[in-house]
TrEMBL record:
Keywords: Signal
Presence of keyword Signal: yes
GO biological process: alkane catabolic process
Cited InterPro entries: Lipoprotein_repeat (IPR005297)
UniProt protein name: Lipoprotein with Yx(FWY)xxD motif
Residues in the signal sequence: 1-22
One Pfam family recorded for the sequence: Lipoprotein_15
Keyword Signal: yes
Length: 170
């Protein structure tokens, strides 16, 4: 008899647990409900403008890091692949519409890379970060190799040569 009481107790607890997991009471039919909660909208990458030293107002990513264009790219196509990407990571487009602060939206687009990923572009040219820029406001990649340029707030590359940045391209 004692064993039968334990079995009935376990079954009762199991049934109570199943009942609690079933109907949430919101369904008019009394059956299981199918709730649809909308996921938050996917955020796109963020671009803004900031004053960066003698370069003036430039485009930066959401973390305040300076963005660059590469002279070997052409409008709509990135030519920075392989080892180049280790020093010049792309500014990924993200899953939603880019968030722009102080930048003309008509300047910003996306480029599909050879691996199928999406990269942000300004003025049709893919944009990158420089791995040696370790904090917001750094622009150590300016004029590296004579082919990497900071992007001004107007979407145009800034070709001012720094006095010395000690970097040698990619």
């Amino acid at each position: 008899m004692k064993r039968m009481g334990i079995v009935i107790g376990v079954l009762a607890l199991g049934l109570a647990g199943l009942t609690a997991c079933g109907d949430d009471g919101d369904s008019a039919s009394g059956g299981t409900s199918s709730s649809s909660s909308s996921a938050p909208a996917a955020a796109g990458a963020k671009l803004a403008t900031a004053d960066v030293g003698s370069l003036g107002k430039v485009i930066v990513d959401g973390n305040g890091r300076t963005v660059y264009v590469f002279d070997k790219d052409v409008s709509g196509k990135s030519n920075c692949e392989g080892d180049c990407l280790a020093k010049w990571p792309v500014v990924a487009a993200g899953d939603g519409t880019p968030q722009l602060d102080g930048i003309d939206a008509s300047l910003v687009s996306t480029v599909t890379r050879s691996d199928g990923s999406k990269q942000l572009a300004v003025g049709g040219l893919p944009i990158y970060l420089f791995a040696s820029d370790t904090k917001a406001g750094d622009a150590k990649g300016q004029a590296v190799g004579g082919v990497w340029w900071v992007v001004g707030a107007d979407g145009k590359k800034i070709t001012t040569q720094p006095s010395s940045n000690g970097n040698s391209g990619y």
